[in-house]
Amino acid sequence: xxxxxxxxxxxxxxxxTITVIIYRLVKKQRQAEYTKNVLFFPxxxxxxxxxxxxxxxxxxxxxxxxxxxxxxxxxxxxxxLNAQKSLKLCMFSITCDELAQAVTTxxxxxxxVKVVTDxxxxxLNGSKMHGxxxxxxxxxxxxxxxxxxxxxxxxxxxxxxxxxxxxTHAAVVGNTENVLVTNNPEIVRPYLNEFTNLWEKY
Length: 202
Ligand SMILES: [Zn+2]
Hints:
CATH topology of the largest domain: Endonuclease, Chain A
Strand order of the largest sheet: 1-7-6-5-2-3-4
Low-confidence stretches: none
Shape: elongated
Strand content: 15-25%
Helix content: 40-55%
Radius of gyration: 23 Å
Bound molecules: zinc ion
Largest sheet: 7 strands, mixed
Number of strands: 7
Number of helices: 8
Structural class: alpha/beta
Number of domains: 2
Distance between the termini: 73 Å
Order of helices and strands: HEHHEHEHHEEEHEH
Mean pLDDT: 92
């Protein structure tokens, strides 16, 4: 009788161990499926706008600006330019020509663009918000003396790009900044909810 129980315990132990191993492998596999990217700024070279945004690319043979696909800025631009359905921007400050142009390009291609921003900063010189409004892009801004200080964008409701990075020229080639990109739904969902909350509130 005792022997039988002992054997049973060994079997239960083995099955439990195998179950835990399989569970961990599946979990690891699922995590690996998520896109993750961490970008740091400043980039060492100024990016080439033509390379990124001109329909024919940069035709200069001796272009001194960066065409480096591994640079943080060009990676960031690729995420924006690859948007298929929507760009939900929650951005304290936008003064960067290239990023603003990427947004308006996508808007003209039919991508839904919504922008939440800060009232004081949208009225400063260099802000791209009035250009966005002229294009027909819908913008909502906070109604308080506090700052709408977020710096994130949700792309196609599937990818979130977030960090310390405001969409300014200084953030590209001057400041130390960090940007995290992920399509993990557990991270994307709360960002999307935050965007919707602010969009409805303002
Ligand atoms: Zn170039």
